[in-house]
Amino acid sequence: MVAKISSGSSLYSALAYNHQKVNAGCAKVIFTNNMVEPQDGNFSIGICTGSFEPYLLANQRTENPVIHISLNPDPKDKLSDEQLAQIAEEYMQKLGYGNQPFVVYKHEDIDRHHIHIVSVKVDETGKMIRDNFQHRLSMRICRDLERKYGLVPANEKQKAEGYSLKAIDSKKGNVKQQIANVVRAASQSWHFQSFNEYKALLSTYNVHVAEVKGEHGGKLYTGIVYAALNEKGEVFGTPIKSSKFGKQAGNEAIQKRIEKSKELIKTNNLKESPKAIITKALETCKSRADFEKQLLKNQISVLFRENESGRIYGVTFIDHRQKFVFNGSRLDKEFSANALEQRFNEEKHSSDQEKSPEFTLPQSTFASDSTLENLFGLLNIESRGENPEEEAFIRRMKRKRRKKTKTVSHAKRRRCTKPCQNNRIDTGCQHSNPDHSHLLVLL
After folding, report:
1. Residue 199: CA atoms inside 13 Å, Cβ hemisphere, count?
2. Which residues of 51-60 are buried (b: 16+ CB within 10 A; e: fewer)?
3. Which of 66, 220, 374, 428 has the fewest CB atoms within 10 Å, measured from its CB?
4. Under a CB-based contact definition with an 8 Å cutoff, are residues 241 and 378 in contact?
5. Residue 392: predicted pLDDT
6. Bridge partner list, 224
7. CB under 8 Å to 171, separation ≥6 — which residues?
């Protein structure tokens, strides 16, 4: 289970973020603590605000008094609402917020159901709840809760992430979020030495990626767009700009990843293991289908790109164990498209064996003029987080409230030109005689 903690100054923003989900039917309140109970059971923003306000009014000096926490169990952890509520209550108790008012929301907008908690860092006496080493404490609490409830440990989840990615399924809905899950893991955890290798990797999870280059308003631009693939490997739906999936999914980040991957592949000698496996598979396989099966047993996928006549013109291997993508010719000339075309197509023409279905990478590049015009407005690359919508909210929460600086205009000191009582220096004449007229001059 992974916990994310953020602090902010706006209580309304924290509540509104969650209530938007509630109103959309993809979230609900599953637990409250020290909150005013509404008669109709509807914890509206107004009702919740009324529970928190006395605490906030007790201490108006604390800069970011609102705390927002998300607890994210592994998708394999099937937990009921009651279990999630109990986990939230125990987590808040151990974190030091057991006596605070807080409300727990369960979010169901993605397959990975998770909970959000809103509370305040000021107690009823106006004393601030110290948050020193809070993130370290939170990690210990999560490990304790994982053991107590038999949850999948976060570290094991991270180790299995690369090979447990799920291909997007349009029938499940929320295609944008499914694409985001694939792109996030692929762009941050995998090694590839070219954009085409990155493209090949995503295609195995039914995601298409394309570079968009052009000129608009006299300025050159380069961007990346993503889209879903159907069961035939065809692009469908509206392309989505990379900024919707985070800065790491954009063109600049992908190019940096390519350069970093080249160095890692060379220094860590990642080629040797897959070369040995592929060589052995070629020596022992009886057919192309058999070749693919043997590689899959060793967690290596192979993608063949063919023209209309069935000739192989490209081969890409994907090593799921090392999270490494490479073109066949880059690995060894024996694994190039020409070599495998000669090997398997000779076999295909001389054998009556059934041919396994082949996967052809989509040819669409979103490069038509009309599409470019429509996409230009999509190419303003922004920084998003792991869950783009949620991370954008967290960043807003973390922004420190800017202190308003008052511009103090110093009064210009003036001296009366006529003899006044005590010859005072002030912003005006202080003569005791109100009828006495004076000429004031600036010093």
Report:
1. 20
2. bbeebbebbe
3. 220
4. yes
5. 63
6. 211
7. none
Q: Give the side-chain half-sphere CA count within 13 A for 279.
A: 10
441 Cβ partners below 8 Å, 6+ apart?
A: 414, 415, 417
Return the SS3 of 116. Answer: strand
Sorting pLDDT into bands at 50, 70 and 90, what band is 390?
low
Torsion of CA 104, 107, 111, 112, to 10 degrees: -30
CB 128 within 8 A of CB 143: no
d(C-alpha 361, C-alpha 206), whole Å: 10
Which of the residue ranges 215-224, 254-263, 342-351 has the most confident prediction, judged by mean pLDDT? 254-263
Work out the mean pLDDT of the chain and round it to a whole number: 78
pLDDT at residue 348 above 80? no
Average pLDDT rounded to a whole number, residues 204-225: 85
Cα dihedral across residues 317, 224, 249, 256: positive or negative? positive
Amino acid identity at 356: S
Q: What is the DSSP track for 244-305?
A: GG-GGGSHHHHHHHHHHHHHHHHHTTTTHHHHHHHHHHHHH-SSHHHHHHHHHHTTEEEEEE
Measured CA to CA, the distance from residue 416 to residue 425 in angstroms comes to 8
What's the pLDDT score for residue 361?
44
pLDDT value of position 440:
44
Alpha-carbon dihedral angle through residues 36, 38, 41, 42, given to the nearest 10 degrees: -90
Residue 347 CB coordination number (10 Å) = 15
59-76 residue pLDDT tens: 888 888 999 999 999 888
Contact of 382 with 323, CB cutoff 8 Å: no
Query: Global pTM?
Result: 0.48
Q: What is the pLDDT of residues 279-307, one digit of tens each?
A: 999 999 988 989 999 898 888 989 988 88
The answer to whether residue 427 scores a pLDDT higher than 50 is no
Q: What are the structural domains of the chain?
A: 2-160 (3.30.930), 170-268+365-373+377-390 (no CATH), 272-360 (no CATH), 409-443 (no CATH)
Q: Are 326 and 193 in contact (CB under 8 A)?
A: yes
